[in-house]
Amino acid sequence: xxxxxxxxxxxxxxxxxxxxxxxxxxxxxxxxxxxxxxxxxxxxxxxxxxxxxxxxxxxxxxxxxxxxxxxxxxxxxxxxxxxxxxxxxxxxxxxxxxxxxxxxxxxxxxxxxxxxxxxxxxxxxxxxxxxxxxxxxxxxxxxxxxxxxxxxxxxxxxxxxxxxxxxxxxxxxxxxxxxxxxxxxxxxxxxxxxxxxxxxxxxxxxxxxxxxxxxxxxxxxxxxxxxxxxxxxxxxxxxxxxxxxxxxxxxxxxxxxxxxxxxxxxxxxxxxxxxxxxxxxxx
Length: 283
Hints:
By secondary structure, the protein is of the alpha/beta class. It has a single domain (about 5-280), classed as Carbon-nitrogen hydrolase (Nitrilase/N-carbamoyl-D-aminoacid amidohydrolase, 4-Layer Sandwich), CATH 3.60.110.10. It is about 30% helix and about 30% strand. Strand 12 (about 225) and strand 13 form a beta hairpin. It is globular and about 50 Å long.
């Protein structure tokens, strides 16, 4: 079905869950006013990113008042949002929720936790161990969190599980310079989202945050990419923005007929060769 998505390119406050929830509620209200059916927020939108020892202080269980409030809001508009999750056995995850019709429709725990350069996620967080697509009113969707997208197997698995829309929640800092003097991280992400969409015949909805934390700047540039790899809407660089994109079912149908990559993908060969590689590595 055709629908409008809103990418809420916000500036979360580090460790301030109440303030961030209020900011999210405002963006949800704007999405409803603008006629969006889905609003997507960045990675760790409820908490901020460079939490370090604050992780246990801001973590939320799935039955917390904050999550129940977001679930209630999803009766009017579907919501994808990032937060720190705590489980009953006190594990902490960098998680993303998809809420719809007043309920949690899907929970994704970040699988690939970067621990290099300025990143230190594995010191504070547990790794997720599942990649699953799920059904929504807008078709079958898969969710990834930032670094997950950089591992080819992750979007591939979701596409093979039937996802025609990939949502990526991100907190990507600005790093490096490209040949055109734009941020290197901006150029890299734009190539990645376009290539992923094109090779998997899938839509990509990428939502990145802005603002500063510990002297690090997040660059924004949220975007909607159609199944041909073309950008249909893109947010401002280094500024807060509210990006609206119209998603047309016909574009997905046309691309999958014109370039039937998913039709011709041979899962049998992929699994056979992966089992061979696994067996050889165990020898």
